[in-house]
Amino acid sequence: MALLNILNYPDKRLHKIAKPVEAVNDRIRRLVSDMAETMYAAPGVGLAATQVDVHERVIVIDVSETHDELQAFINPEILWSSDEKKLSEEGCLSVPGIYDDVERAEKVRVRALNEKGETFELDCEGLLAVCIQHEMDHLMGRVFVEYLSSLKQTRIKSKMKKLAHAM
Ligand code: GNR
Ligand code: NI
Prior knowledge:
Shape: globular
Distance between the termini: 26 Å
Bound molecules: ligand GNR, nickel (II) ion
Order of helices and strands: HEEEEEEEHH
Strand content: 25-35%
Structural class: alpha+beta
Largest sheet: 5 strands, antiparallel
């Protein structure tokens, strides 16, 4: 078990596009376990491999109140998204202290591999639906602040740079 370093926006590496996992092996299982530990410690409800500078299609999510329902999504694909959209407030471990509204599909159906390499499908709504779309954006090199106005993005970048200098 190991805590991984989370990249902070506006780090260029957050814009890298993740490659599909070729085989769900012990290296991937260790990555899932280290990402889960990092997510719970942060604390956060989701984490994409991109955020820990690993550019492979791996996500961990736990939206349960009891923090005991870890779900790994390897090579996730969105099979279907509802036409109904919903605005909700998002935050990101790579953009600490920033929360703003983003519009997402209200419901999505996802197909992925689990830690055993088995395919599963899951219907998602509520926070899980928001989170999976947020994490899949990370795998495509997209951070939620990119949905905000360019004025807000400029302000967020300057705030993050000041924060980095203070550390
Ligand atoms: O911990 C997180 N909370 C959250 C809240 C609303 C919408 C999305 C998220 S994901 C975020 C963790 C994170 O940055 N994942 O990439
Ligand atoms: Ni995020």
